[in-house]
Amino acid sequence: MSGPILAVLICLVVAPAPASAGPKVDVVQMRNGDRLTCEIKKLNEGSLTISTDPVDTVSVHWGDVAALTSPREFEIRLQSGDRLYGTLAPASRPGELTVAGAIGPPETVGMLDIVAIVPIGSSLWNRMDGNLDLGFSFAEANVETHWTLNGSATYRGREYELTSSIASQLTTRSDAEATSRNTLTFLGSRLFERRWFGSLLGQFQQNQELQLDLRTVSGAGAGRVVGQSSTYVLSLFSGLVYTHERFVDQTPDNSAEIAVGSGFHAFTIGSDDFSLTNNVVAFFAVTGRARTRMELQTAWRHKFLSDFYWSVNAVESFDSSPPTAETKKNDFSVSLAIGWSF
C-alpha cells in the first residue's frame, strides 16, 4: 500500500484522546436492578457508553437500561428526527425518560424512541465513532495471499456530520503480478429538520483488476433518513457528480453522472453485539458514453471482546460499459477480518 494512503488512514482513525474524566453525577438503573453511578459519555447504535472511574470506560446495551438520571444537560435525538435538550430523570412509567429543558415544561419520551444521547459541550472524541479492521487469507496451491484493510470515522455535531472511510485490498500470487484496489471517501452533510440532509462528496478510487489507474468523483446531493429506530437506520439520497477517470493505456475521460443510493445500518440493543452495514450507489452517465456504474459495500460484524470484533466484508464494483472489450465489467470480493471500534 502506498505511503499517502497509509498517511491518510492514520489521520482518519487517530483522534485526540478524551479529556480527563468528569464528575460521576449520573446514575444508570439497569433492568436487573443494578444501579451504576457514573459519567454518561454517549448513546449510539444501541450502546450506552459510560465511565465508572478515570481509566475505565464500558459499554452497556441500551435494551438493558431501565432509567437514567443526570443533572447535566444532554442532546437527545429521537426516531422522528426531533432533538431535545436538557437534564435527565426517570418518568413515572417504566420504559420512559423525562427531559427537563431550561425553557418550557419537561418532556417525556419512550426509551426505545431515543436513538442518540450526547452531553452538551462534550469533547470531539465523544462525538466520534469509527472502526478499523484487518483481514488476511493464504492459499498454498499458488502461494496466494490476500490482505484487506477497512476503516471509517464519523463526527456528529448538532447540525453537521462528517464521514471519511477507506477500503484497501492487496492480492499477491507466485504466478502473477500483485493487484490492488483502494477507495478513499469523504462525505460532509448538513442536517435539517425531519431527518433531511444535504451532502458534499469526494472520492478517489484505484482498481488494477479493472485496469483503473485513478477515478475521482466529486459532487453534491440531498437525501433523507426514511427510517430510524433503536435498532436500524435507513437513508436514501441522490445528487449530481463530476467524474474523472484514467484507465490503463486509455485517454483520460470526464463525465457528469446522476448518483442514486441508499445506506442501511442495523444493530442489536440486547445482549448480543451484531451489526450489519450495507451501502450501495448507482451512477448513471449524463454525458460521455452511455453506461451505468455501481459500488456496493457490505459488512457484518460481531463483537467478541470489549470493542473488538470479527467481520465479513463484501465489496462489488460494476461498470456496464468499460473502456475496452477486454476490460472486466465487475470486481467482487469477500473477506474475513478482525477489527476494533471506537
Could you walk me through the main structural features you see in this protein, from its secondary elements to its overall organization?
- Helices cover 3% and strands 67% of the residues.
- It has one helix spanning 3-13; strands at 26-30, 35-44, 47-53, 56-61, 65-78, 83-90, 96-100, 107-110, 114-119, 128-139, 144-156, 160-173, 176-191, 196-207, 212-228, 232-247, 253-267, 274-285, 292-305, 308-319, 330-341.
- The chain has 342 residues and is mainly β.
- A twelve-stranded antiparallel beta barrel has the order 10-11-12-13-14-15-16-17-18-19-20-21.
Tell me briefly what this model is:
The protein has one helix at residues 3-13; strands at 26-30, 35-44, 47-53, 56-61, 65-78, 83-90, 96-100, 107-110, 114-119, 128-139, 144-156, 160-173, 176-191, 196-207, 212-228, 232-247, 253-267, 274-285, 292-305, 308-319, 330-341. The chain has 342 residues and is mainly β.
Over the alpha carbons, how many angstroms does the gyration radius reach? 22 Å
CATH architecture title of the largest domain: Beta Barrel
H/I helix tally: 1
Q: Tell me the strand order in the biggest sheet.
A: 10-11-12-13-14-15-16-17-18-19-20-21
Q: Spans with pLDDT under 50 lasting ≥5 residues?
A: 1-20
> What is the CATH third-level topology name of the largest domain?
Porin
**Mind telling me the CATH class of the largest domain?**
Mainly Beta
Number of domains: 2
Outline, from the CA principal axes?
globular
What is the terminal-to-terminal distance? 24 Å
Order of helix and strand elements from N to C terminus: HEEEEEEEEEEEEEEEEEEEEE
Averaged pLDDT, please?
Answer: 88
Helix content: under 10%
- Strand-pairing-aware structural class: mainly beta
Biggest β-sheet description = 12 strands, antiparallel, barrel
Strand content: over 45%
Number of strands: 21
